[in-house]
Amino acid sequence: MTENIKDKVVVITGASSGLGAETARHLVREGAKVVLGARRLDRLEALAKELSLGEEAIFKVDVTDREQVKAFVDHAVKTQGKIDVMINNAGIMPLAPLEMMRFDEWDQCIDVNIKGVLWGIAAALPFFKEQKSGQFINVSSVAGHTIGAGGAIYSATKYSVRVISEALRKEVKPYNIRTTILSPGAVDTELPGSVGAPGVSEAVAGFYHQTAIPADSFARCVLFAMSQPENVDINEILFRPTAQEL
Ligand code: NDP
């Protein structure tokens, strides 16, 4: 068993697929209590069944809605008695050149990837402050460190996650709260499906097909960051497939 995981209450946004779902599997295996949120309730129900979790372990939430995210975290605390880790993981990656002016995607990407993280922080922070303990794990990306053509909006959101997390890290020192940024490269999930721009989606799918590594790579990083002793704060993990140059 990995240390410092058992019995921790871990709230995960974007848990209906990909990195969030795989992290839930690893955490449950290690004895953590997970509360899983996303919009697709059927997917959450299937995951809860797979992991033998009760219905209180899943919650339908749209992270763009501040009240819904607050209700999600409140539900976790009400049913589990506390919250130890908030994983702000939900995200989309609608890559496209700016000249395509896919305005709805710009809006949604900013709302999910930036505001969703902010709402998650806002919902969990009062509990962490009160407890004088807790850990935020905010999901950025290699795209939060480097920018490619077609990646302006997505990278802007993922740089923002790092900016927000770094300020948060400094602000919450008095409360014994840990802050971790996880920045993956290409990992095999449903994320390429959020690329809708003609021409771009095929290229991204091809790149992922050739390069992406399994989602347990990410879950192991979560476990590593969580398992450190209370006085060790892993601030960021940046990892890529060995084959990924970008
Ligand atoms: P997936 O597409 O497999 O999962 C995305 C998750 O986000 C789903 O569970 C989805 O749930 C959820 N989500 C999307 N929009 C909303 C919303 N409005 N409200 C609530 N949940 C939402 O992709 P990944 O698992 O790969 O993505 C997880 C995170 O990892 C994202 O932040 C992504 O940017 C980041 N990342 C991923 C990389 C990769 O290569 N896979 C690389 C770098 C970063 P639902 O649709 O049911 O609401």
Describe the structure.
Strands 3-2-1-4-5-6-7 form a 7-stranded parallel β-sheet, sandwiched between helices. The protein contains 7 helices and 7 strands. By secondary structure, it is α/β, with parallel strands linked by helices. The mean pLDDT is 98. The radius of gyration is 17 Å and the shape is globular. It has one domain: 3-Layer(aba) Sandwich (Rossmann fold). The chain has helices at 18-29, 41-50, 66-80, 103-131, 152-171, 200-211, 216-227; strands spanning 9-13, 33-38, 58-60, 85-88, 134-139, 177-184, 236-239. This is Short-chain dehydrogenase/reductase SDR. Belongs to the short-chain dehydrogenases/reductases (SDR) family. Keywords: Oxidoreductase. One of its GO terms (molecular function) is oxidoreductase activity, acting on the CH-OH group of donors, NAD or NADP as acceptor. Residues 8-190 form the Ketoreductase domain.
